Amino acid sequence: MTDTVSSFTSMDVSTAEQWAVIGAETMKNQGRVAERVLGLLRSLGDIVDGFSTDQLTHCLQTATLAERAGADQEMVVAALCHDIGKAISVPNHPAIAAEIIKPYVRDEVYQVIRTHQDFQGRHYYHHFGGDANARDKYTGAEWFSLGEKFADEWDQKAFDPSYDTLPLEHFEPMVREVFSKPHSL
């Protein structure tokens, strides 16, 4: 075995020493997480799906609105990443985005992103015959008011091509900071 490569071919024969190497290498390479997130965000520039802005611009506007409203760094980064799942699957995008950010943000931020479509649904579900009050199933959750703020004040308002939107470069240091170390492994 070398210092950077474990030699086991099956986990059930691995050793604590090998896992120590893997753990150290994982933390040493944590910077790649931010790079992958930034790459997924950039890819949203190709997705419009009938909106007045591409999805990267929408995410940037949502984060800009959150930052200008005084949201903390974790919430601003979550606002930026809230639709990152659309790079993979539009119908399942809230769950994808929430799972990407989950190890790096506090639980209330994770919950807001996980449920944001139902909160934002207040503004459009009725157009599809859906329940515009879908957010009500989360009433009583400690993070409910943050979910309302996210959906009503930032997310649903972030489709304005003429808005003074901050560029991705503005948010990159925050992305790198938030994704630099998971709260827990």
Structure description:
This protein is mainly alpha-helical and 185 residues long. It has a single domain (18-178), classed as Hypothetical protein af1432 (Orthogonal Bundle), CATH 1.10.3210.10. Helix content is 51%, strand content 0%. The protein has helices at residues 16-28, 31-43, 55-68, 73-81, 93-101, 107-120, 144-155, 168-178. Helix 2 runs antiparallel to helix 8, helix 3 (55-68) crosses helix 7 and helix 6 crosses helix 7 (144-155). 35% of the residues are buried. The mean pLDDT is 93.
Question: Mind sketching the topology for me?
Answer:
Elements: H1 16-28, H2 31-43, H3 55-68, H4 73-81, H5 93-101, H6 107-120, H7 144-155, H8 168-178
Q: What is the terminal-to-terminal distance?
A: 24 Å
- Residue fraction in strands: under 5%
Helicity range: 40-55%
**Which structural class matches the secondary elements?**
mainly alpha
Distinct helical segment count: 8
The ordered H/E elements are: HHHHHHHH
CATH architecture heading = Orthogonal Bundle
Q: Kindly give the count of domains.
A: 1
CATH superfamily: Hypothetical protein af1432
The top level CATH class name: Mainly Alpha
Output mean pLDDT.
93
Major sheet summary line: none
Poorly predicted spans: none
| Total number of beta strands | 0
Shape: globular
Radius of gyration, Cα only, in angstroms?
A: 19 Å
Which fold name fills CATH's third level, the topology? Hypothetical protein af1432
Kindly summarize this structure in a few lines:
The chain has 185 residues and is mainly α. Helices cover 51% and strands 0% of the residues. It has one domain: Hypothetical protein af1432 (Orthogonal Bundle).
